[in-house]
Amino acid sequence: MNGNWESSGPPSAPLDAPDNTPGLETLDGQGIGGGRPSKPRPGLHLVATPIGNARDITLRALDTLKGADLVLCEDTRVTSRLMQIHGLHKPLMPYHDHNAAKVRPEILQRLAAGAVVALVSDAGTPMISDPGYKLVAEVVAAGIPVTTLPGASSVLAALTLAALPTDRFLFAGFLPPKSAARRAVLEELSGTAATLVFLESAQRLPDMLADAAAVLGPRPAAVARELTKLFEEVRRDPLPALATHYAEAGPPKGEVVVVIGPPDEAAAPAESDIDKALLAELAHAGPSAAAAKVAAAFGLPKRQVYARAMALKPQP
């Protein structure tokens, strides 16, 4: 996930500040106040980095980056900027979709030899819409330790700001860029009893919201952009209103996360009502046309209604 850093200095609190909070430990088993951190243990460390504001990095992340033998990153320019802000100087190696297969053997060899390797994404938590999955899978298969250093995540940040249900949510990444494919995926997800979270490019946002409104109807939703940055904005409205706003205003600037509320179970139509409407339409139209009209009327996926229409269609 891409992002731009806001310049800021390193945290002012000392790493060995006393803290006797029960249950908090460092990786070496010492309490938070147990002295300055030692070199991280050998293995692969998944390090979350800020999504916009450079101060949103944990003390433990700074310790690990400082003690790493190698830092794997999507774009060395982005990670170099973060390291400079916090006064860190470590070897960086590009690790992205285009070179991952080629460099993984070298990374595994270094890990097997006892190196401390940190994996970061351009912004946020590694393994969320970045190429780290195959590396972690191979490291685990080789019996090499893997640990995670939790931190910033645009997905969770947007979810917490959306004012929508958070007890159950589905992160669905990026939708397809073409409208037909995008609508097909939205139809598949329309029956999911959970809040939906998507990443989207600013340029595609107006079209994405138009398709979401057409398929999902007037569900409550939120568009979060520039999270943690100076011009952070969260716009909350039903999908049709959001689609209209961005169609008129045009694509916004910055990184975008779209959060869409779950279907309203209380408003779910009864199967008997759907069947009644389908039978009325099937009296003068084919299954496809009947399903399209009924699906639009009830706010349901066309595929689901079409399957029911075929079951109700009079047999010759």
The CATH architecture designation of the largest domain is 2-Layer Sandwich
Sheet-strand content, in percent, reads: 15-25%
The succession of helices and strands, N to C, reads: EHEHEHEHEHEHEHEEHEHHH
Which fold does the CATH topology of the largest domain refer to? Methyltransferase, Cobalt-precorrin-4 Transmethylase, Domain 2
User: Which residues sit in consecutive blocks of at least 5 with pLDDT less than 50?
Assistant: 1-22, 27-34
Percent helix, as a range, is 25-40%
Query: Major sheet: order of its strands?
Result: 3-2-4-1-5
**Helical stretch tally:** 11
Largest sheet: 5 strands, parallel
What is the chains' assembly state?
single chain
**Mean model confidence by pLDDT:** 87
Task: Briefly note the structural class of the backbone.
Answer: alpha/beta
Broad shape: elongated
Instruction: Give the class-level CATH name of the largest domain.
Output: Alpha Beta
- Name of the CATH superfamily of the largest domain: Tetrapyrrole methylase, C-terminal domain
What is the count of distinct domains? Answer: 3
CA-atom Rg in angstroms = 24 Å
User: What gap, in angstroms, lies between the N and C termini?
Assistant: 55 Å
How many runs of DSSP E, i.e. beta strands?
Answer: 10
